[in-house]
Amino acid sequence: MSEEQRSATYPSSAGYARVNGLNLYYEIHGTGQPLVLLHGGLHTIDLSFGGILPALATTRQVVAVELQGHGRTGDIDRDPTLPYLADDVVGLLDHLGIGRADFFGFSLGGLTALQLTLTRPARVNRLVLASTHYRPDGFHQEILDPQAQPGSPRMPTESDFQEMYEAYTKVAPDPGRFEAFAEKLQPTVHAFEGWPDRALAGMEAPVLLLVGDTDFVRLEHAVEMHELIPGSRLGVLPGTTHSNLPRRADLVVPMVRAFLTPSADAPATDPRAVDAPPADGIPSAG
Q1: Are 93 and 126 spatial neighbours (Cβ–Cβ below 8 Å)?
Q2: Dihedral sign of CA atoms 131, 136, 137, 140 in order
Q3: Could you count the other beta carbons within 10 Å of the beta carbon of residue 151?
Q4: pTM value?
Q5: Cβ atoms 136, 194 nearer than 8 A
Q6: Which of 42, 52, 100, 205 has a 20 to 30 A CA-CA distance from 26?
C-alpha cells in the first residue's frame, strides 16, 4: 500500500447525520469528486469496501455510509425498504451539501443505488452496480431457497456469516441485535419485487455492472441488464463469489477508476448542483 493509500485509510472526517429519524453514520476519505459507497446487506463499510476504499480515495472524495441497522447506524421502528434506504442517502447528501455524486453500490447497496438513480436521477453522475439484480428471478434459485441446491459454491459460507457477525458486534450501538436485524432485513431482498424493464431502459446515467462468475446474480440476468441499460458496461470477474467481489481489488479498482474517469470531451458536473424533483412514473421496488 502506498503512503497516499495508507493516509486515505483513515477518514478525514466521520460522524452522524440526523436523517429521517436515523443517526446515519458516514465517513469521508480523500478529496475530489464525490463517490458514495453503499455496502452490502449485514455488512459494514470496512467489511464491504476495506480492500478497495484506500485506492479509490486517492483520487476521489469517498463518502461511505452505513445504512439503517448496519454497523454504527442504529435501527429504528420502520422496515428497511429500498425507498427508505435511498431517501436516507439523499438526506445525507443534503446534509453534506452534495448535489450530485458518483455511486458504487454492492448487493443491498447496489439495490439502494439503483432505487435512488431511478427516482432521483438528478443526484447521480455515474453508477457502479456490483452484484445487483433488478428482478427476483435475477438470483440463482438456491439463494432464495437454500435447499434447492445444498452445498452450492454460490452460498455464503460459515466464515462469511461469522465475519458479518463480528463486524456488526464490534461497532453496533446494540451489539446483541444482529440476529434480530438480520431477520428484519430479509424481506428487503426476499420479498423484492424489482423494477419494470422500461425503468432500466430509460436510465440516462452511465452504468458499470460488475458480477462474479460464482455470484448470487445469474450471468444471464446481468447480460439482460446490460442490454436494457443504454450504453452500460459489463464486467464479469473470474473465480469470484458474491462475498469476494468487492475484495478483488486487483480487478475492481482499475475497472472502476477507468469507468469513473470521463472522457476529455465530457462536460464537467458541479457536485453542488441544485437537485431536481423526483422522477415521475417510476415505481419503487417492493
Answers
A1: no
A2: positive
A3: 7
A4: 0.90
A5: yes
A6: 205
Residues 6 or more apart whose Cβ sits within 8 Å of residue 158: none
Return left, alpha or beta for 107; rule: phi > 0 is left, psi -120 to 50 is alpha, else beta: left
The helix or strand, by DSSP H or E, that contains position 282, with its residue range, turns out to be none
Rounded to the nearest 10 degrees, how much is the dihedral formed by the CA atoms of 265, 271, 274, 278? 90
Q: Is 60 helix (H, G, I), strand (E, B) or coil?
A: coil
Q: Which three cell numbers stand for residue 240?
A: 469470484
Tens-place pLDDT, residues 13-63 = 999 999 999 999 999 999 999 999 999 999 999 999 999 999 999 999 999
CA distances from 278 to 34, 61, 122, 211, 229 (A): 21, 25, 8, 29, 19
- Decide the pairing of beta strands 22-29 and 13-19: antiparallel
Per DSSP, what are the bridge partners of residue 34?
Answer: 61
The backbone torsions φ and ψ at residue 269, rounded to the nearest 5 degrees and listed phi first, read: -120, 145
Contact 219, 236 (CB under 8 A): yes
Residue 199: phi and psi, rounded to 5, are: -65, -45
Bridge partner residues of 19 (DSSP): 22
* Cβ atoms of residues 251 and 237 within 8 Å: yes
What is the per-residue pLDDT across 133-183, written as a single tens digit (0 to 9) for each? 999 999 998 887 777 777 788 888 999 999 999 999 999 999 999 999 999
